[in-house]
Write a structure and sequence with these properties.
rod-shaped; leucine-rich repeat; LRR-SigEffector_domain; Leu-rich_rpt
């Protein structure tokens, strides 16, 4: 059920064969959920309402072949419009559109397009032409599709250029990161070697000091022993015993 003029309306009652007429219903939004159940309705007339936007979900109605959105207040179309791959006829007459989504280029089956009475940007307006009759609307569809394909191609090339540039920047960042890591490893290796050399010098210094101390102690001990042996040698003892002073003292 949907509401038109504040009243609930069964969309099936509006369906006539494969045509669903929702024109002049004062709609401010599209009843997408209800429309999605009516896959038989390949022709949809939403003209003469108060629609300002189409929700992105609307582009899931891939069964639509003819769509009339004329005489609404549409200011833009959803970027996903290209999903309406079955669309052959699109009427956008008398809205407030300045541009069209680039995805329009994907509508390979589009044969008829009316863009009259829209404030189109100059480049698009020139491509669209006047759309005053059947022939011009068919030509409009062909020219606009080609225009959108050109824009899509340009955007794809720009996207590819940016992607390649980003990859180059990423490679440069990776190289810089590897160089930075290599420098850090080298610095750590150098610090480790310097620390090892410092410890080796400390060890050698301590070892030399210890050896010097041991040699000094051994020298002192040898001198003491030499002096001790000299004091108790036979000559020293004989002299001691023959000394008059010592004999007098002992007598």
């Amino acid at each position: 059920m949907s509401k038109t003029n504040g009243k609930a309306v069964n969309l099936k009652d509006k369906l006539d064969g494969n045509e669903l007429d929702l024109s002049l219903c004062n709609l401010t939004e599209v009843p997408v959920k209800e429309l999605a159940t009516l896959t038989k309705a390949t022709v949809l007339d939403l003209s003469c309402n108060n629609l300002t936007i189409l929700p992105s979900e609307f582009c899931g109605l891939t069964h639509l072949m003819k769509l009339d959105l004329s005489k609404n207040q549409l200011v833009q179309l959803p970027p996903e419009l290209g999903r309406l791959v079955s669309l052959q006829h699109l009427d956008l007459y008398n809205n407030k559109l300045c541009s069209l989504p680039v995805s329009l280029a994907k509508l390979k089956n589009l044969k008829w397009l009316d863009l009259k009475d829209n404030p189109l940007e100059p480049a698009l307006a020139k491509v669209a032409g006047d759309c005053l009759d059947e022939k011009q609307c068919k030509e409009c569809a062909a020219r606009v599709l080609q225009h959108m394909r050109t824009i899509q191609s340009d955007q794809d090339r720009e996207k590819q250029r940016r992607l390649l540039a980003e990859r180059e920047r990423e490679k440069k960042r990776e190289v810089e990161q590897r160089l930075r890591e290599a420098r850090e490893r080298e610095a750590r290796k150098r610090e480790k070697a310097e620390e090892k050399e410092r410890k080796r010098r400390e060890y050698e210094s301590q070892r030399a000091a210890l050896i010097h101390q041991q040699e000094s102690e051994e020298k002192t001990e040898r001198e003491v022993q030499r002096e001790s042996r000299a004091a108790f040698s036979p000559a020293a003892v004989g002299w001691f015993c023959s000394c008059p002073f010592i004999q007098h003292s002992t007598g």
